[in-house]
């Protein structure tokens, strides 16, 4: 058991105190208190993050890396300090392995363009799973279209779990990269990423993990996972939008060409040629999202202060309670019943379109997500065009579950 988990033992999780850290939770929506159950799309920010960004904007803002004046140096210190916080959060070996991006999507596109494309040729393969978000499908389709490579898709079963034998059978001598989610956003399935990495590495195949839905639960250790790339977004981790991270193994990043050109990513430029900057700046062309990085650093500090292991236990308790309560609603079907799940429940109710459910719930002040969740192949697999999805974070409580259940009953009455 990890140290954080040991530390949290015996200490009650004080959800009321955590809720008080999030100013938005005290607002009303449609004249009712907000019950926010859409954190898998974007989680809310604690005051510590809002304040850190405001402090930076108010007192320190300037451009990074190129100024000798005080503000530029303070901005650079804040920006690079955030990188160091991310390094510690992921347990990466070096800040050279931490590249700031706009989010998970851009991080995966960076790998598709800079790592995969130069290595792919006709007949080569990229292996993903049926559970992926479009951000971990489309960049590979584009890379395959440009190079003649093929996209292979590992199968899942009716519970929404990866069929590991099917995955292993698709690892071939032509597989150049495995790219899989750590947690499915549409179903909540936790994938066996340690096994996946081991099986791929035994065959010399590098692995990218899409950690968009996993990072907020903390405990990410890229050295223990032994993955080659890891991508996540700040806004699903109680941080700002427009900032995310690509972790890459230093030896691989060194070999990769930059994927965007411009300022900051160069050492010298003449019309005859350009030399690239050191890692990680080689991959950070142009002025970065400095306040976003500062906010992400503050979000990581915040998560550490409330103990990720305790948050995880709290969310798992909410998942169990909410699943049991929802299953008592006639006509409700939970889509995705994997043994290991993050606190995400996708569901449908007979005779009510998920969008109508979402609208009625919004009238009751309950925010859930409805649609295909940017995972259309998963929807196809389960034969539904869309689902309703409730997702839980550190600030949700049993009151939110009661509100969800009452609002769903109200929807059934409306459509009866
Ligand atoms: N999922 C959801 O409601 P960006 O947009 O770059 O921050 O993250 C993309 C992404 C990639 N992978 C997974 C597993 C994701 O869940 C997401 C974002 C949101 O589920 C928006 S569709």
Task: Explain what this protein looks like in three dimensions.
The protein has helices spanning 3-8, 15-20, 47-60, 70-90, 104-119, 138-147, 164-170, 193-202, 222-225, 250-255, 290-306, 308-327, 354-363, 376-382, 398-415; strands spanning 28-29, 32-33, 35-36, 98-101, 125-129, 150-154, 175-181, 207-210, 229-233, 244-248, 266-269, 274-276, 332-335, 344-349, 366-367, 369-371, 387-391. With 416 residues, the protein is of the alpha/beta class. The protein folds into 2 domains: 3-46 and 307-410, Aspartate Aminotransferase, domain 1; 50-304, Aspartate Aminotransferase, domain 2, CATH 3.40.640.10. The protein has a 7-stranded mixed beta sheet, with helices on both faces. Strands 13-14-17-16 form a 4-stranded antiparallel beta sheet, covered by helices on one side. It has a two-stranded antiparallel ribbon with strand order 1-2. β13 (332-335) and β14 (344-349) form a beta hairpin. α4 (70-90) packs across α11 and α5 (104-119) packs parallel to α6. It binds ligand C6P. Ligand C6P is lined by residues 40-41, 103-105, 133, 135-136, 181, 185, 210, 212-213, 233, 369, 373-374.
């Amino acid at each position: 058991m990890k140290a954080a988990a040991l530390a949290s033992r015996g200490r009650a999780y004080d959800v009321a105190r955590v809720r008080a850290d999030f100013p938005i939770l005290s607002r009303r929506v449609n004249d009712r208190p907000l019950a926010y159950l859409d954190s898998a799309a974007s989680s809310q920010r604690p005051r510590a993050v809002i304040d850190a960004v405001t402090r930076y904007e108010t007192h320190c803002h300037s451009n990074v890396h190129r100024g000798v004046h005080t503000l530029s140096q303070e901005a650079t210190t804040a920006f690079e300090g955030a990188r160091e916080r991310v390094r510690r959060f992921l347990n990466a070996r070096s800040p050279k392995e931490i590249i700031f991006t706009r989010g998970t999507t851009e991080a995966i596109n960076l790998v598709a363009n800079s790592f995969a494309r130069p290595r792919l040729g006709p007949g080569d393969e990229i292996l993903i799973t049926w559970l992926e978000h479009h951000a971990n499908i489309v960049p590979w389709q584009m890379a395959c279209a440009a190079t003649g490579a093929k996209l292979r898709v590992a199968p899942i079963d009716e519970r929404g779990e990866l069929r590991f034998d099917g995955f292993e059978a698709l690892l071939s001598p032509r597989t150049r990269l495995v790219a899989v989610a750590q947690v499915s956003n549409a179903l909540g399935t936790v994938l066996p990423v340690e096994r996946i990495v081991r099986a791929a590495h035994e065959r010399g195949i590098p692995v990218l993990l899409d950690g968009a839905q996993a990072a907020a639960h903390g405990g990410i250790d890229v050295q223990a996972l032994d993955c080659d790339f890891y991508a996540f977004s700040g806004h699903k981790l109680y941080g700002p939008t427009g900032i995310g991270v690509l972790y890459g193994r230093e030896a691989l990043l060194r070999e990769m060409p930059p994927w965007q050109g411009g300022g900051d990513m160069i050492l010298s430029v003449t019309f005859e040629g350009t030399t690239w900057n050191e890692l990680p700046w080689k991959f950070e062309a142009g002025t970065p999202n400095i306040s976003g990085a500062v906010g992400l650093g503050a979000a990581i500090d915040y998560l550490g202060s409330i103990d990720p292991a305790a948050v995880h236990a709290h969310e798992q308790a909410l998942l169990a309670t909410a699943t049991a309560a929802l299953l008592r609603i006639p006509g409700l079907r939970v889509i995705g019943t994997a043994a290991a799940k993050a606190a995400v429940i996708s569901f449908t109710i007979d005779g009510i379109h998920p969008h109508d459910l979402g609208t009625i719930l919004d009238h009751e002040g309950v925010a859930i997500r409805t649609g295909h969740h940017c995972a259309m192949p998963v929807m196809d697999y389960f034969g539904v065009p869309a689902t309703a999805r409730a997702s839980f974070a550190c600030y949700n409580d049993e009151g939110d579950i009661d509100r969800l259940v009452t609002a769903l009953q109200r929807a059934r009455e409306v459509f009866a």
